[in-house]
Amino acid sequence: MITHLNGKLIEKNPTNLIIECGGIGYEVKISLNTFSALSSDESILIYTQFIVREDAQLLYGFAIKEEREMFNHLISVSGIGPNTAMIMLSSLSTEDIALAIQNEDVRTIQSIKGIGVKTAQRVIIDLKDKMLKFNITAGNIFSGNNTNRFDALTALVSLGFDKKAADKALDKVSTGDETVEKLIKDALKIL
């Protein structure tokens, strides 16, 4: 997995970047918030999420780790793909999305192009518990424990378990202090 790129900025557009690292040019899809946050310096560091689909291998880039974490949360919701998540992150800041979810503000989420009432409600239902545990600031929306839980869920799904069943199992075993490995082992005992 490619977690970040540190290299020479070749081209910067509102929807993508081209970064040269070790003589290879990487095209990275970005949100408008990342576009605004990145300077036009020649050397940049961008956090990435590598998505492999049947027909493509895509890199999505983020100026800050919190935006990447929000992206991962959003794509975990049924009906939200990487492109829709990028539209959401282009329309609202990470903090605004977290606040809208925490406050069950369907109207704000629905105001994003391509998001209907049902999808907005699904985002709130699926992510509210993850957002309620935190005070909303850019630095603490995502704690290590939440990331550990997300990583454990991702691992269980990649092992072939149903996402909802894995999520319920993690709810039963998670107290907030476990490592990813412990969460997976305890959830496997239930599954």
What would your notes on this structure say?
This protein has helices at residues 32-37, 65-75, 82-91, 94-102, 106-110, 117-132, 144-158, 163-173, 180-190; strands at 4-12, 16-21, 24-30, 43-52, 57-62. A 5-stranded mixed beta barrel has the order 1-2-3-5-4. Helix 2 packs across helix 3 and helix 7 packs across helix 8. The chain is 49% helix and 20% strand. It is globular. It folds into 3 domains: 4-62, Beta Barrel (OB fold (Dihydrolipoamide Acetyltransferase, E2P)); 65-132, Orthogonal Bundle (DNA polymerase, domain 1); 144-190, Orthogonal Bundle (Helicase, Ruva Protein, domain 3). It is an alpha+beta fold and 191 residues long.
CATH topology of the largest domain: DNA polymerase, domain 1
Structural class: alpha+beta
What topology, given as strand order, has the largest sheet?
1-2-3-5-4
Largest sheet: 5 strands, mixed, barrel
**Rg over C-alpha atoms, rounded to the nearest angstrom:** 17 Å
Order of helices and strands: EEEHEEHHHHHHHH
The CATH architecture designation of the largest domain is Orthogonal Bundle
Quick recap:
The protein is an alpha+beta fold and 191 residues long.
Keywords:
DNA polymerase, domain 1; globular; Helicase, Ruva Protein, domain 3; OB fold (Dihydrolipoamide Acetyltransferase, E2P)
Task: Give the helix/strand layout.
Blueprint lengths: L3 E9 L3 E6 L2 E7 L1 H6 L5 E10 L4 E6 L2 H11 L6 H10 L2 H9 L3 H5 L6 H16 L11 H15 L4 H11 L6 H11 L1
Parallel strand pairs: 3-5
Antiparallel strand pairs: 1-2, 1-4, 2-3, 4-5
